[in-house]
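PROTOCOL LOG
Step 1. Enter all chains and additional molecules of the complex.
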Amino acid sequence: METMNYSIIRYILCRVIEFAGLFFLLPCLVAVIYQEQEGYAFLLVAVGCLLLGGIGKHWKPKSKVFYAKEGFVTVSLSWILLSVIGALPFYLTREIPSYVDALFETVSGLTTTGGTILTDVEVLSRCTQFWRCFTHWIGGMGVLVLILAILPLSGSYNMHLMRAESPGPSVGKLVPKVRNTAKILYGIYIAITLTQIILLFFAGMPLYDAITLSFSTTGTGGFGLLNSSIAEYPMATQTIFMIFMILCGVNFNLYYLFLIRKPKDAIKSEELWLYLGLMFGGAVLIALNIRDQFDSVYETFHTALFHTASIMTTTGFSTVDFNLWPEFSKMVLLLLMIIGACAGSTGGGFKVSRLLIVIKSIRNELSYVVHPRSIKKIHVDGHTVSESVIKSTQIYVMTYVAIYIVSVLLLSLDKFDFVTNFSAVAANLNNVGPGFSAVGPTGNFSQYSVFSKFVLMFDMLTGRLELFPMLILFSPKTWKR
Amino acid sequence: MRIIIVGCGNVGATLAEQLSKEGHNITIIDTRERLVQNLANTFDVMGIEGNGASFSVQAEAGVENADLLIAVTGSDELNLLCCLIAKKAGGCHTIARVRNPVYSREIGYIKEELGLSMVINPEHAAAMEMGRVLKFPSAVKIDTFAKGRIELIHYRIAEGSILHDMALKDIPTKLHCDVLVCVVERGDDVVIPDGNFILKEKDTISIVASSQNAMKLFKKMGAPTTRAKNAIIVGGGETSFYLAKQLISMGVEVKIIEKDKERCEELSELLPQALIIYGDGTDRDLLLEEGMVHAEAFASLTNFDEENIMLTLFAKSMSKAKLITQVHRIAYDEIINELDLGTVIYPKYITAESIIQYVRAMQNSIGSNIETLYRLNDNRVEALEFVVKEDSPVVGIPLQQLNLKENILICGINHKGNIITPGGQSVISVGDTVVIVTVITGLHDIKDILK
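Step 2. Run joint prediction.
Step 3. Record the structure below.
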């Protein structure tokens, strides 16, 4: 076994730091516009990052050897590094006095979770609020995908990076070159974000709010500007949020199919229909369950659909405190939370495409019991799913459950009840944000102990990077020389 | 360019690697999922699993917008069908590998009627390469520029050669011949040397010289300069047939040793002038009996790499013949190079290389002024031939006053058909073609050689 190519990992990490420096310039700009003192903290970190990254990239890597192992390690280290750096401004501006809390907030932002430790987000300065929401946007499509789109990183490593960062059981390219694929994905992402900003602006929202909340929506994050999340905005604005959440939970490859005028292929996607079916089905069930809480049928269904969309796309916006809903509705939401959005979207969770493969393997297994000699392949969208994808999906299920159980176990060291802990893990591992009970839409994660916060941070990163890139960091074999 | 490659065997993989590194958009198609996966994981290419001759698979690979489809599966018929469908579906250029001699004989007709841009026969290409080497027995390999008028000859300095410990600037005075050493490969290093560079034995040098000068140099060094008069070929495959045919036309006495009786009879029908020996080519006594010791050229062209290498080593110890070894596996070339087997021919590599040359030429018709492009010494050195079409900063100025980038050497100027081996006073004019050797990749125009 070849030893890890440390020099190339270091090199890519330097480029990541450099990009982080560029990201920080945006909140600086906001601080200039609103004349806020907090901007200096962002400027300081930005300059630090640009210097560090700028100097570091001058030592070219000694060897260009780059395998899947290096890809996984680079991606997970990049995310950890970005979180550590991204937390600095929160801490430096003293808006989040504890560094661990600042780190939690950043991890929650970058992984598009949207769970917070802040009890009052309305007191934050505008540049800090901007940064919180912007982390969602960066994390939504992924930092390394952005770097791949911009930097001409030649060589074989781009596919390994892309695969480690992009969600879904099998990562396909849209076009032959990784760089162009990354560009197309970011192009679609930017177009969706801009459309939402414009719509929100015309719906009467101030431009600043429109921009920040659009970042939160398209990244499927869920950080808001108000403590009450989205509840205080008018119905029409809520509908815009709802539509864009649903759009961003769809596999972005489908939009590309529309762009190259193959909408028929996009419409045929089984994952899309299962995704929409589960979302609307869940909404109908919840609407029936909570119908006595609202005056009109429209309002009932609107609220139900808003929340199934918000939870399933793992955004985590809320218009009402769904923690007060009947148990059945909460259970439906919990299931949707775990299922999550489509592969190749900005959403998190287990992913609908994996669910599709699992459902089909179960059906195959049943048919195998009836016809023991039958040979049956799993087909999705008319293509045979290869054995290796099925196997890795099954292993994903097992690993997911294992991490889930261990996390709940570790959280129970704290003082909270089972529902809180169980839903807290669901909300973080699936990058949703709010859970139930003490961590519901009106609660937050601030009361957890430092240890529990680290467990949840690990869950968020693991969930966003789809388990294995994070787990590989803990395998001694990875680091052995 | 957008290129679709059907077939992910050795040739397909080499093509995918090389062409994706040169910046083309590559989509690969193969029915073997694992191969597709592996390639798509290692190189920046898109993989599609399926039958490349199927229209829907080609459509998925984007044949409508493709510029070129290369079919290099194991089957000739499939390759031709792939090209035919791609031509009808996308109107792109097509290249097919066709190795069956039955088709090869009618290749002109097939190419014309199916609208193929290029047909490559690996055995034929390999045999041509071997023939070229045998014409110039001291050379390891020869590349030609300016329509054959400039030759880049690769030569390995033998142990105890007079070139050992000689500085390049001393060659013209001490040996009285005008040659230009462009590239020196020593172990793993490849350098573009200056006058103070000192040669050592076992270096592989690439020289530009007129045929007479090169001949003179080889004579001074005591290397064989006359063409081989007789040749022994072990193995009676297609390559052997093409090589023998070529050698016979050059007036060389050819012996082919083949262990399959039927094939022997077939060969004897096809090559009445050759002596066909029915026997096992790896049989030591047989080889000695057939006069291996006095052979002037010896080619091991069996289907087994190990056998070929062994035979060559044996021939090397027994005779002074010019050696040619055919090796199918590309992966272990560094080890094979260390064995000093004379000329090693990798048919798969040659196939890939010819296709890549075609692709480069095709691309050149779009943007740059490159006429020919060779990748030498493991792709670390490029030899390019530029056409100076218009007035550019390099025109009309003596070379010594040009501010050239480092690691660039101008090694030949074709001025109205006269080949000039350039010195400091030489001048490039409009209409010339200029051959340069460089380790810098990605030059597109002659002016790119300036700082």
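Step 4. Note key features.
Residues 347-364 of chain B form the longest helix (18 residues).
The two ends of chain B are 28 Å apart (CA to CA).
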